[in-house]
Design a protein that fits this description.
The structure is a homotetramer. By secondary structure, chain A is of the alpha/beta class. Chain A has two domains: 185 residues, Quinone Oxidoreductase, Chain A, domain 1 (Alpha-Beta Complex); 135 residues, 3-Layer(aba) Sandwich (Rossmann fold). Chain A contains twelve helices and 18 strands. In chain A, a hairpin with a 5-residue loop joins strand 1 and strand 2. Chain A is globular, with a radius of gyration of 20 Å. Chains in contact: A-B, A-C, A-D, B-C, B-D, C-D. At the A-D interface, strand 14, strand 15, helix 10 and strand 16 of A face strand 14, strand 15, helix 10 and strand 16 of D. Strand 15 of chain B pairs antiparallel with strand 15 of chain C, so a sheet runs across the interface.
């Protein structure tokens, strides 16, 4: 089958690879009908990935149809239309029962397509271990574009907003308006934020956030504008959806006393320069982390189904698998007002 | 001055009464620019009020201007534009500090205009005890109509929704779409409800709820419709905003297993027939109660200011004080697609 | 095998019945080493049970050893020492994944031994449907007596305390000091109650509650004593662990303004006389319901293991199965300072 | 009057200073009967204080008797026995109403004795601004030693434990067993921790924590021991009560995936080296901050009154004001199994 394979910095190619093989009786194989490129895939693309190796199939956002199930799979059958969320766990512990694969009691949290251990889903098909724990049925009424955003971006944004502790009436800032940031804007509004400041250097992205109900802010005086609009106090909650040192520092500067900052952008700096003196005076709460997609879906699916979270504006580009290299290039370059890029392996 | 005085069932008259006298140095006098008629005023109007006496000035929703302050008042000065919320407390205990006047530690919770103890505010002016605890400044950007709804209806609806425990993604039913019910629809949506079923016999009221984002349901098969739309499970949370025995029973029937019912309608039946067997099988939570307006305002004011809670459609009628009897009659009769009725003592 | 069979009011007999047959491949059979008699079994004993039939095996609290598993059972093997909690669900829905069998999405919540549908566990062995969902492993360090209390009484008490909303510093009253009530005392203290008023007519039961850290109160002036010790305010949270109309009414009278009452005693009165006027003035929250044992165990097992919840004093009597009739009689009569009665089918 | 004055590193002297002068009509003067030396006073003592100046009166933990009140003080009268918590606010904003002086809306949060702006309370008397907001009445049943611990150490520990998000059943580690750390052990237990690992190098301090119910851990293999006792997972919640870079790093290493670390020790390092890569993999929540004592007292006072939080073992030494230099020296040197040091200005 065809799949996108990582071969080194800026070198992702569409190639012929072996068909996926289920690892055991609890596994399934899903024929991929749509796959997403995630902002965290760009870390790999730029050669700053999560594994030292190359030569593996990338991608951790997929929607498709079950084409094979092991005899131990109870909840899915051939023909089911499913989400393949970004990661999975052992499938047998209490944490996995609750969908919290990131804290799997058996330490078996695994993400697709971030190294050779588990092949990714930017491919015609993907093998899914612990299928009952991994997969989720896509309900009638949710289309492929919405489903792709439910495999990672929206749950990650929601998780970040939830950990930030957003309560009705709060003022919120979202730093970075890529797909996760835009989802964070929508999440904050559903949680009852009175105002959301949507911060990005790109005007097009700010305009999309404004269509969702946010106030766009950008440029060098971002901090001053946000402080001024909050009577000098800063915002109650900040969601950082970039992962850069500078944007995290901006986020910390925007929070009010006893406010919180929740980082969902990927930052792998082992020596981030953190200002404890400032954090103490501001009594900050600082949340960093990885979402367990399966744990957030029971809340998010009804919100997407009823239209309370509008994902209609998120996807800006669609490519075939064979155009994968170009898709990555364009997304990395932020060209053509790109927001979410989707790959269509059926094309 | 002129004021509306209760003289018995269906007999509320606009009369000349003595000007308000501050009781002590902690009191203020507010010249009323707008007063609301609340659904609970209809209990008094129909002769089922909260005190046996008659001859007192009614009304507990007022907006106006401070015209006199005692020397003990710290936070308000003559000329301030203020809300006069429905009730107040001692003003010196911890509960009052937090705005929770309903559970005043000194047992001094008092509502305006529900008996002779504290004259009401459907009048040209009202004396306000414990003014620092009672009053709230109206921020720039909130108009008189919005302000009137902030004195009781919206905080009551919000309190009910909050106690129902609405969380993002929940399905919600609101039973009764008078002003409090419409505010409850808006509150549930701001709290993240995925769907709100807005239940009333009057089509015009359902239509207003639909404009806010709810799904109108009415008629004899209300229960069946709601169950069908929730896959037979019932809704997560129900807010009852009527106070009738039958509507409370309907509310209880709509809740799912481990769901909750929050009654904000006034029901004074000391022998309500409660089905414990059903409540046990459904593991229900049943909340009944009176809102401390002051405790809800810090959350609600930013939400009204930013437009997240839209009160624009609430007020349907405005009358002068001298037309008070007609205002009550029309509101009680639910004539002319009435929603919220406001009195204008300056007219 | 031998089992206790219900034959009508006050007529429970130890008889020879067929050995348990697993219903399907997801079932297991557990050899019972200890079984508990629950307060709710007394409803059956007195002829006020949950099913009209007789002739079924009773009991829903069991500890034992897995002796047979269907091929669909993943988490348990022959020889495992297990808890058999009071009820189970379909085992395949999201609610069941979270242990919330009482709100099983497929409406398959079933309790053991309360009718002919699912044979009880006061027997030498019991068939357990949906074994992966039903059973829980007993960790090293928890003995049979503790384990029996974990199958129903302690989780029920904890659930009631949790729903009452106990927070650190709260004052709490527990009405009724049978095994569930004593567990509720311990639960309230672990949740941080500053004071627990333990209410029962029997002095011996009050004394046991006092050993746990509560203040015993009994007799006709219970309400007055509790009000006096709370400066006339009433307690923050009340747990009712009897299920009688009078005790529920007492519970309602003890709660402070904006307090809560959580009923875990079984009351099946379809016409409970509920004072809405009082509930409104007091802004009460009233919780009624059935516990999903499996959902509470992840919290409770560590607390029992570390000794924070001390179950050592709970069990007062142990009988063989053949003495079952006498065990029921004594427990129903509250004779001999009885607290928890345990049956030993191995004797 | 006599007071302890800071003159530079390791140079605190008992001197004659001017009697305190109330700043305005909202102020009071309190004659100090006991004052505490706080761990954060040692930052000043070692020359790493919060203000560049010297020559000011130190101390921010005091208990005493009101001897003078301005005409604007409503809640206190001469003769009242009061707590003087560590800091205060404007006394007129919503945050101050709720006791949250640290986030005073008017930015007027001020601590006693950390600079020349507001004279400290290690003196015979102290002037208290915004007295109604600052002071709290000491209820009957709370002695001076308990009261001193309620002015800062216990509320700080409780605040830290609360922000860590301790829930019943959690495993907790407390790093550092000075007075705040010992109070954190007690707080965690009242919040329902199943196990508390109490970490300090000094055996005597660990022994005191063990008397409260914790498991003492110390030495180079602290991390390994805690991991081993938690099946390799780490603890749910960590409270850091030292403020050192190394101890904060230890705290971060002890938390499990999705765990939290709450720092209540004072760390003023503007360049703390924070491992974002680790924090992301562990999905950590990191809380840093200053407690608003007044906001925590309504919960803590009942817990101390009823004995649920036992402060009896905390105070180890008492000195007169004239022995202040020696008191500081001994506390800084951790000599003589010192825990809490109290100064007695009446001696």
């Amino acid at each position: 089958m065809k799949a996108l394979v990582y071969h080194g910095a800026e070198d992702i190619r569409c190639e012929q690879v072996d068909d996926p093989q289920p690892q055991d009786l609890d596994s399934a194989v899903v024929r991929v009908t749509r796959a997403g490129i995630c902002g965290s895939d760009l870390h790999i693309y730029h050669g700053h990935g999560f594994a030292p190796e190359s030569g593996y199939v990338v991608g951790h956002e997929a929607v498709g149809e079950v084409v094979e199930v092991g005899s131990g799979v109870r909840r899915f059958a051939v023909g089911d239309r499913v989400l393949v969320p970004a990661s999975t766990g052992c499938g047998r512990c209490l944490a996995c029962d609750h969908g919290h694969v990131a804290r799997c009691d058996n330490g078996m949290m695994r993400a697709f397509g971030i190294g050779p251990a588990l092949a990714g889903s930017q491919s015609e098909a993907v093998a899914v271990p612990a299928a009952d724990c991994s997969l989720r049925t896509i309900p009638e009424g949710i289309d492929d574009k919405q489903a792709i955003l439910l495999t990672d971006n929206l749950p990650t944004a929601w998780f970040g907003a939830r950990r930030a502790g957003i309560e009705p009436g709060d003022t919120v800032a979202v730093v970075g308006l890529g797909p996760v940031g835009l989802c964070a804007v929508g999440s904050a509004l559903v949680m009852g934020a009175s105002r959301v400041f949507a911060i990005d250097l790109l005007e097009d992205r700010r305009r999309h956030a404004e269509l969702l109900g946010a106030e766009g802010v950008g440029g060098d005086d971002t901090k001053e504008i946000v402080l001024e609009r909050t009577q000098g106090r800063g915002v109650d909650r900040v969601i950082e959806a970039v992962g850069g040192d500078a944007t995290i520092r901006l986020a910390l500067s925007l929070a009010r006393i006893e406010g919180s900052v929740s980082v969902v952008g990927v930052n792998q700096n082992p020596h981030f320069d953190f200002n404890m003196a400032l954090a103490m005076v501001k009594s900050l709460s600082f949340h960093i982390g990885l979402c367990s997609v399966q744990a957030e879906l029971p809340t998010l699916i009804p919100l997407v189904l009823s239209g309370r979270i509008d994902l209609g504006r998120m996807v800006s580009h669609r490519f075939g698998l064979s155009e994968g290299a170009e898709a990555y290039r364009l997304f990395a370059a932020r060209e053509d007002n790109v927001r979410k890029v989707i790959l269509d392996p059926t094309r």
